[in-house]
Fold this protein.
Amino acid sequence: MKRLGKKLQSRSGASILLALLFFLLCITVAASILTAAASNAGKLRSSYQEQQKYLALSSALRLAAGQLEQAAYEGCYTVYTWEVTVKDEEDRSITTRYYHICQEPGGFHCGLLEGLLPFQEKLDALFSQEFQGAACSPLTGEEPPAQFTLTVAAADGDSALSEKFPDITVTAEMNGNRRIHLTAVLEETADRVYRMEAELSAQGSPVIEFSPDADQFPGGPPPGGAHAAVRKTQPVTWKLDWIAREVAEG
């Protein structure tokens, strides 16, 4: 150490060069530390912003799912019953009882999304599969697509947040098992898209609750004057099953 001190205090060229090299080494190490700190800070800031975007997507999905969890569908049908009396060869009256079941448009209610989701037609089409046989008349028509897209404002009126978060698009689609699939999309740029998905499962299934008596037989279209009894199924509801994020595209 004494020798190093003497060399540093020396006025010879070698000592000055050694001091400069030592000073340069200190600058290099300090620059490396500052660069690493700045890089880590940038990564943390980027990670925080990404988490904010996924939080906005999750909030939009839970908002839509919350309304769908308030939804309920009831299938509707009318049971017609009538009697036909005829005379046999011995002029005796023989009465036969008939029944026929006709599907009616059901009811679909969905909180704040009332009247916006096109799911009633889809649910009626799925319920029509219960109407099999000559004694049943389902609703006619092709099964409509059950897909709906809505826009959720992430900022909710806050101009500062409006610039930070663009609106989120939420698509709702129902499949043949009455499950509702939700997809929330936030498009940051043309080539960078954030996406989250969720799915709700149907609780229950609409069924025809009619058991004919032993002396009742399937009949064709009901005649005028037949007794009509309108019935509804047990309500079908929905419950959030899962929610998951996808890696940002781009």
